[in-house]
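Supplementary notes for students who missed Thursday's class. We covered one full example, reproduced here. Read the sequence, then the structure, then the short commentary at the end.
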Amino acid sequence: MSSPLPTPARPELVCPAGSLRALQLAVDAGADAVYLGLRNATNARNFAGLNFTDPQLSEGVAYAHARGRKVLMALNTFARADDAAPWYRSVDAAVALGADALIVADLAVMAYARRQHPQLRLHLSVQASATSYEAIAFYRDHYGIQRAVLPRVLTLSQVGHVLRHTDVEIEVFGFGSLCVMVEGRCALSSYATGQSPNNAGVCSPPSAVRWQDRPDGVDVRLNKLLIDRYAPDEARGYPTLCKGRFEVNGRRDYALEEPTSLNSLALLPELMRQGVRAIKIEGRQRSPAYVEQVTRVWRQAIDAAAAAPDRFKVQPGWTATLGHLAEGQQHTLGAYDRPWR
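Structure (token representation):
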């Protein structure tokens, strides 16, 4: 008789925290780790009213650590060539305030962190766009990266290929908004707004967003560029150029990417069998209620898959909850499932 297959390791559930309240709710709902950023351009969700002051970060770290959870701090934008000091100061602040790891993309920031704080754990951000095991090996060998977050452009088989050829921990996105670009390489917002999301940390800076009422609805622009037009009673999301509607060959539709969310619950047992070490939930810009509900669903799902991977089934209640919270109330397997490949 053949011996039974080993039970897959339970991956960490890594959840977003755009505020102290979101952090607390994520921890209480079962997150193994939360990720967050400071209130400056060093993180890729630099929205007004979000993120952490130093005292809030200190309180959040204490709250998480008291419950045996981790805090990962995102310094995942690219440092300005003329002034990298804010990024370096943020590295020092993360250490002083007790963060368990940094999520980094910029080589200079990695080098500074490794030189000044060699004990600090470094995770390679999705913003670095490392899609191969060779790229990940480069960051490991030169900067001591211990975990890499894969971009949302790889198929399931490609994720498995990376995992079979690296000893670096691999983290993948499980739920949340998709990015049409190879992350860390987006120039769309720069074209429309004059500000790079890879430096300023916002795809659509509020200063560039224009809502213009019309008799038949509302136009939304980034500066002077019209990117969508809504009917009076149509739901409106936060505008980004990649998810705008444009007329192409006489048809007005989402030309680049639809406003829909990645939902990989159905793939969870396979991701675990392949050896994924962490599942990441996107959404630091979303509400604390969103964070709590998504965290609770994924906690239940990961625990169920770990207990009985061969009998795992996506529960209707999980699908209903995530469907309600998904962008545009639609969800997809994204690049994980590309039959034509």
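Commentary. The mean pLDDT is 90. The chain has two domains: 12-178+260-336, 199-254. If anything here is unclear, bring it to office hours.
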